[in-house]
Design goal:
Layout: H1 10-15, E1 23-37, E2 43-51, E3 54-61, H2 67-73, E4 78-84, E5 87-88, E6 91-92, E7 95-101, H3 104-107, H4 112-116, H5 124-136, H6 141-160, H7 174-189, H8 198-207, H9 212-215, E8 216-217, E9 223-224, H10 226-230, H11 232-247, H12 252-264, H13 280-304
Antiparallel strand pairs: 1-2, 1-4, 2-3, 4-7, 5-6, 8-9
Length: about 325
């Protein structure tokens, strides 16, 4: 009988950087899938496949095995793939020989979903409790009621949502983790900047990305919803805050300033901001948001780095570079 092909995780595959041609099998989620056309006119698939430990890109040509199965599976499907290891420019890019969609009935098996879905490294229940603590600590009553009303509306979706499709904190509970990391940073930094209204800044921190709870959808692979595409999380978050602020009878001046934090937090219009930050609180929130977004990319790359593997990560688009992941000697 032929020797069984070992089933490996993405982390295990990436650790085999000197094993070109080695046969493997893996259980993976189709995270991204696009049909493209080569220079000769033939179609091919550009796919990102992954599990809770990472992902990799691969190309499947129309005349190759697995093309039709992968195309039909679509984003969010769970597939069992078999193939041979290959590395392009030092990065994992295996050649697939077989692709089979895993039926939903099999996904209920113990541990299957847990092995596929990347989650925040911190406990989600503890993060949610901490979030409520930050809300309760807002001294201004109507501002606190505004923030509470937003989370009463979107709380469960907010707890589960990623903070991005790919850039930073792009995993289950990632939005909650990102928000709490910024709130922790804000709590430490606000005493240094007395010109910044601490209650208003903290309210802005907690609400700045709440629109992402509406913008993103999907259980195993994240995609943008209809409203996410047509409006985007900045506008959606502004709408949530405005509705809640009016309901809480927040004074017009504070509501306008809170709305401005949300509308400007992306930093620059080219990055998705509706306007440039033009108040002390908006400048503060935009900067601490960018700090945690960048360091969140660093933390994830370090978590996914394999011991004894490549010295540098793959290029991180949000940092415009690869990251040195090998620890100091």
């Amino acid at each position: 009988m032929p020797e069984a092909v070992p089933t490996l995780t993405v982390a295990e595959l990436k650790a085999l950087d000197n094993a070109n041609g080695r046969a493997f099998a893996a259980l993976l989620v189709v995270k991204k899938l696009a049909v493209k056309t080569a220079s000769n006119g033939n179609a091919f698939l550009s796919a990102d496949l992954g599990d809770r430990g990472g992902s990799f890109g691969c190309t499947v040509f129309s005349d190759g095995p697995g093309f039709e199965a992968l195309k039909a599976a679509g984003e969010g499907a769970v597939v069992r793939v078999e193939g041979k290891l290959d590395f392009y420019n030092g990065r994992l890019s295996p050649k697939l020989a077989r692709v089979a969609v895993v039926p939903e009935a099999e996904l209920g098996a113990t541990g299957v979903i847990d092995s596929l879905v990347e989650v925040a490294p911190e406990n989600a229940d503890a993060l949610w409790a901490e979030c409520n603590g930050f809300i309760d600590a807002i001294g201004h009553a109507e501002l606190r009621a505004t923030v509470r009303a937003v989370f009463d509306e979107i709380g469960e979706a907010f707890r589960l949502a990623p903070a991005a499709v790919a850039m930073h904190h792009a995993y289950r509970h990632g939005l909650l983790e990102h928000t709490i990391h910024i709130a922790r940073a804000a709590r430490a930094l606000l005493p240094l900047y007395r010109e910044v209204d601490a209650d208003l800044a903290m309210a802005g921190v907690l609400l700045h990305d709440t629109g992402k709870a509406i913008e993103y959808e999907g259980t195993l692979a994240t995609r943008r919803s209809r409203r996410g595409i047509l409006q985007g999380h900045v506008v959606l978050g502004y709408q949530l805050a405005r509705k809640a602020g009016i309901k809480a009878k927040l004074d017009a001046e504070r509501l306008e300033r809170l709305e401005h934090i949300i509308l400007s937090h992306q930093g620059e219009p080219a990055w998705g901001a509706a306007v440039w930050a033009a108040t002390p609180e908006a400048v503060f929130v935009s900067l601490v948001d960018n700090l945690d977004a960048k360091l969140g990319m660093v933390q994830r790359a370090l978590r996914q780095a394999s011991a004894g593997g490549e010295e540098f990560s793959e290029r991180l688009p949000g940092l415009n570079t690869a990251l040195l992941t090998r620890p100091q000697g």
